[in-house]
Amino acid sequence: MRAFFSSPWRPFREDTPLTNAVMIFVLTTLFYFLGAMMRLVEELSLFWPLNAVMAGVFARYAFLHRWHYYLISYVAMLAYDAITTTWGTASLIINFSNMVFIITMAQFIGWERSQMLKAPEPVNALKLFSYCLVSALLCAFFGAIGSVGINDQGFWPLLADWFGEQFSTGVLILPGLLAMGRPRVPLHFAWRKTMPIVAVAVSVLASVVIGGAGSLAFPLPALIWCAVRYSLPLTSLVTLITGGLEIILVSSGKINIFVSSPFDIPHMFSARLGIATMAICPVIVSVSVEAINRLIRQVSLRADFDFLTRVYSRSGLYEALNHDDNRFADKHLSVMLMDIDYFKSINDNYGHECGDKVLASFAQKVQQVLGERGVVARMGGEEFVVVATTQDAKEGKQLAELLRKSVETHPFKWRQQTLHLTVSIGISHGKTEAWQLTEMFNELLAVSDENLYRSKKRGRNCTTDGDNSVAAEHHAPVPMDN
Q: Which keywords are on file for this protein (predicted)?
């Protein structure tokens, strides 16, 4: 997903291996400590963030896929256990199970990295879900074997508890961790924008008050609202907090999902799977919304910009006028309709490929000279329009002449040929209010079209305005040759 691996936060760098090693050791120890603080029994944690966090770290930074970095993480786990527990050799197997999840998950995501970098797709969220499933199952197998010796429970209950815990934390943590990054735009707080989060908080409170198995799904509509309104990173963060909070509330009995029966590990297993399944839904919705928005932007871009010349299309020009009405309203406008002289001869003598190249180069030259004073659009064929803000008609004619002379003196290269182009310009002027900007532009464009016709009748390579004043009388040769 684009949003997965989406930004350049760089706590790790390929050229700083010592710093990388220290960071891995510190992160492993920190999240091991956080998980240990939430242990239900001696070796089983209510919420174990370590494995998902470290899998996300190794997945984000491909250069960390080295055996010595994995070994440093494993040694940090063993060191923490040696100081805080009396597990002995069982710690080797239990922490090996943690490394199984980390390495398996990192490898799975690494295989899909190129796909996830391209764009956010719902299928990638589903793949992440299935990768967590497989990694959690492998981790649970070794974890249950290691836990049998230090716990009174049998292998199968331990397998279920290990699997449920690893799977739920993986689904909750990994989407947000992979999508984490610096905001691309400044953050602006507004109470109205917090309503989806308020709805999540209210739904969690309702889960506590009402109880029952169905109460775990109460936050889902609010989370989907978050997915529609917020970015993938923020949606993932809200989902993580909500899911983690529900797990804690269920384990502490605040959310009583089995009102008529005592709480036990199978109930916790069921609750965790339900929460994990719920957590992936807003992630899928979020990446779906982002994919749709990306498609809309692409369609809009194709509609608003001319693919060949990279300037506005006719429809895009109207969108620009409406969108940037503050830029053009209440100002003096000069509308210049431009036509490349004898363009047909270029296609006839050099081919349409050359003609396309000339159109693109011409548009870029006009845009370069115009700068921030206005916008350029291709109206069709070899006809372009410039809408510029000017002080008065005199400045408008001066700008039109500047554009005309820039084209006339600029050599256009085509293979071994140098083409000299000229352009005829019809110009009109006016001033309007924002509410009638489009109507005024249409009127000015019609006048410019008439003046362009006059420029062609007078021999081309000249500018004609509404007063029939001519800024230049240079007649254009047929554009060709070296």
A: GTP-binding, Membrane, Nucleotide-binding, Nucleotidyltransferase, Transferase, Transmembrane, Transmembrane helix
For residue 348, tell me if it sits in a domain. yes
Range of the domain at 393: 314-464
Residue 366 lies in a domain: yes
Burial of 323 (0-12, 13-18, 19+ CB in 10 A): exposed
Residue 155 lies in a domain: yes
Comparing C-alpha atoms, which of 299, 333, 344 is closest to residue 319?
299
Question: Would 133 be classed as within a structural domain?
Answer: yes
Residues sharing a CB contact under 8 Å with residue 246, sequence separation 6 or more, in sequence order: 204, 207, 216, 219, 255, 271, 275
Number of folded domains in the chain?
2
Domain boundary among 248, 274, 301: 301
pTM of the model: 0.61
Cβ atoms of 420 and 303 closer than 8 Å = no
- Point out which residues pair with 334 in neighbouring strands: 388, 429
Per-residue pLDDT of the chain (482 residues; tens, 9 = 90+): 444 444 445 678 888 999 999 999 999 999 999 888 876 544 455 678 999 999 999 988 889 989 999 999 999 999 999 998 888 888 999 999 999 999 999 998 888 765 555 545 555 777 888 899 999 999 999 999 988 867 677 888 888 888 988 998 898 888 888 877 655 545 555 677 889 999 999 999 988 888 776 788 889 889 998 888 888 888 888 988 898 888 878 877 787 765 455 445 556 677 777 788 788 888 888 877 877 777 777 766 667 888 889 899 988 888 888 776 677 877 889 999 999 999 999 999 889 999 999 999 999 999 999 998 999 999 989 999 999 999 989 999 999 999 999 999 998 888 888 888 999 999 999 887 666 788 888 999 999 999 999 999 999 999 998 654 333 344 444 444 43
Does residue 354 sit in the same domain as residue 391?
A: yes
